[in-house]
């Protein structure tokens, strides 16, 4: 999986290899574009967080005027989320050809494998709060 900056197309900004076989689908979350979902013929779905190429600046959703938010910010946001895998889902027994984010909930996604198995998962809560706060 490669991420490019169109201002300098000579080389990718980031190149990641989490799967051991062909990647069939890459989906970026519409609401939080640092969340990237991939499905592959290695029977896995991988959820990655790539904040280094996100359009959301780090900590932009924090309201500095609220005392409660400041307390939460200190406890959760002091550990910035780095680029990397935040979830590996291995519930499928065959190649996973489709993966999609929910249109109703930005934290829910589904995957469909060749054998017809549909699996629904959510972004882990601890990563959800690191993104939001």
From TrEMBL:
SUPFAM superfamilies: WD40 repeat-like. InterPro entries: EIPR1 (IPR040323), WD40/YVTN_repeat-like_dom_sf (IPR015943), WD40_repeat_dom_sf (IPR036322), WD40_rpt (IPR001680). Gene3D superfamilies: YVTN repeat-like/Quinoprotein amine dehydrogenase. GO terms for biological process: protein ubiquitination. Belongs to the WD repeat EIPR1 family. This is Tssc1 protein. It comes from Fopius arisanus. The gene is tssc1.
């Amino acid at each position: 999986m490669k991420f490019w900056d169109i201002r300098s197309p000579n080389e990718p900004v980031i190149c990641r290899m989490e799967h051991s076989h062909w990647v069939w689908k890459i989906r970026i979350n519409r609401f939080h574009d640092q969340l990237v979902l991939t499905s592959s013929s290695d029977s896995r779905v991988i959820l990655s967080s790539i904040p280094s190429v996100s359009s959301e600046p780090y900590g932009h959703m924090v309201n500095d005027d609220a005392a409660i938010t400041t307390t939460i910010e200190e406890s959760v946001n002091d550990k910035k989320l780095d680029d990397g895998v935040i979830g590996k889902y291995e519930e499928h027994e065959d190649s996973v050809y489709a993966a999609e984010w929910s249109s109703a909930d930005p934290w829910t996604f589904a995957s469909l494998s060749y054998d017809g198995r549909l699996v629904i998962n959510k972004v882990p809560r601890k990563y959800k709060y690191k993104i939001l706060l």
